[in-house]
Amino acid sequence: MLTEKRTLFLACILLRVALGVTFLVACADRFGFLGPYGSKNVSWGDWKHFEQYVGFLNWFLPRSVIPALSLLETVIEVALGLALFAGIFPRVVSWASAALLLSFALTMTFAQGAVAPVSYSVWTAAAAAFLLGAVAAPVSARSSASRPPAHLAHS
C-alpha cells in the first residue's frame, strides 16, 4: 500500500533520477554522444559549440576564463548527475544542483531574455532540486538506496 510517506519517497527517487539524467544527457551532448551539431535534439554536438555557448551566456566574464569555466561546469554536472542518480548525500547534492541550475537560469535570462530559461524548464528544475533538498533526509553515502530513510519507511 502506498502511504503518503512512501509516495513521497518514490517521488524523490523519480525526481533524483530525472535531474541526474538531465545533467548527464547535457554532458553527453557536449561530447557529441547525441549526434553532431545541427542534428535533431542536439544543442551543441561538440565541445567547441558548448564552449561558445558558455561564452555567450557568461558575456560578462573575460574570454580567457571561458574554457576553464566550461570544464568546471561539466565536471560539476557529471558529479551531480551521478550523485543524484546514485542517491549519495541527497540533501547536499540536491541543493548544489539547485544552485547550479539557478546560476544557469540567471545567466540565460541576462544573455537571452526571460523566455529562454522558461522554455527549457531551467527555473522548474532549479525549484524541483531545491524542493528535493528540502525533503531529503540528511543521510550518509553508506545508506541503502534501495530502502527509504527511517523517517519515510513507516506511516
Give me the strand/helix succession.
HHHHHHH
Q: What is the percentage of strand-forming residues?
A: under 5%
Poorly predicted runs are: none
Shape: globular
Give the tally of structural domains. 1
Largest sheet: none
Total E-strand runs: 0
Description of the molecule:
With about 160 residues, the chain is mainly α. The protein has one domain. Helix content is about 70%, strand content about 0%. Helix 3 (about 65-85) packs antiparallel against helix 4 (about 90-110). The longest helix has 27 residues, at about 5-30. The radius of gyration is 17 Å and the shape is globular. The model has no long low-confidence stretch (mean pLDDT about 90).
Briefly say what this structure is.
With 155 residues, this protein is mainly α. Helices cover 68% and strands 0% of the residues.
Overview features:
155 residues; mainly alpha
